[in-house]
Amino acid sequence: MRFSILTLFPDLFRGPLEVSILQRARQRGLLEVVTRDIRAHAPGRHRQVDDAPFGGGPGMVLRTDVLDQALAAVLAEAPGHVVLLSPQGSPFRQADAWRLAVLPHVVLICGHYEGIDERFVATRVDEELSLGDFVLTGGEIPALAVIDAVTRLLPGVLGDAMSAQAESFQGGVLDHPHYTRPAEWAGIPVPPVLRSGDHGAVADWRRRQALLRTLIRRPDLLNGARWNKHEQRLLAALTRDLDAMAAEDPGRHDRTSGAWPE
Question: Rounded to whole angstroms, how far apart are CA atoms 106 and 199?
Fold first, then answer.
């Protein structure tokens, strides 16, 4: 898969792309990331990429003619899906990562200053994505987040192909609590079921804990999800138990271990 990044600060991408999973994916030919300096397509000796907004107001706006030339140069090499990283975009979700992971070429445009000329957005951008309801100095950090989230879904990138299937936001819920050695730490033991050797019991425990964690921390994720009858009954029972426990003792949840008592 190829990512092309249009940015005013290509040097910002060097460090994150040269370590860990992203570096290995590039070395193995599973991922290609190309940065393009928008300023290289700006006219004049000073390479001005922005100008004052029509109608007045604070800040500067990225020029549509400069961006258009930069994008045209990238798309001339290979057609691609054009994404603008913008606080006005749709929230970037795990489902978006899966959707982008099947595309051969994604172009990420990193905005800066007060914004981008709307004519460019309306005519050249396929979609706008946002990391959340906050404003950053530019689109470079969101672009890195999108690349990281998508890359780990590409076939062959993760050592265990199941890793991307068994984590938060898969199946509409957060991930279950995880434990490793030592078996007891700071007086807190690992839940006995995880040491029982009963794989069916472990799977049931993990599913129950994942649902509980989602009910507590992100109940919005459960809205609109499709559940089978067993999951519907389990959710209803967990909701009743959660309400009862909270009414009886609001502090009963063991936030140190991250798991609810059996």
Answer: 40
Query: How do 105-110 and 50-51 pair as beta strands?
Result: unpaired
Residue 192, sorted as left (phi over 0), alpha (psi -120 to 50) or beta, turns out to be alpha
CA-nearest of 153, 203, 148 to 176 is 203
Structure tokens at 177: 């609590």
User: 129 exposed, middle or buried (CB, 10 Å; 0-12, 13-18, 19+)?
Assistant: buried
User: Would strands 61-62 and 115-116 be described as parallel, antiparallel, or unpaired?
Assistant: parallel
Rg (CA), the chain: 23
Cα separation of the two ends of the chain: 45
Write down how long the chain is: 262
| b/e sequence 158-173, b meaning 16+ C-beta within 10 Å | beeeeebeeeebebbb
221 CB-side CA count, 13 A = 21
Q: Are 111 and 139 in contact (CB under 8 A)?
A: yes
Q: List per-residue pLDDT tens for the chain, 262 residues long.
A: 999 999 999 999 999 999 999 999 999 999 999 999 999 999 888 899 999 999 999 999 999 999 999 999 999 999 999 999 999 999 999 999 999 999 999 999 998 888 999 999 999 999 999 999 999 999 999 999 999 999 999 999 997 655 555 555 666 788 899 999 999 999 999 999 999 999 999 999 999 998 999 899 999 888 867 788 888 898 899 988 888 877 887 665 544 445 655 5
- Residue (of 43, 48, 38, 47) closest to 70 by Cα position: 38
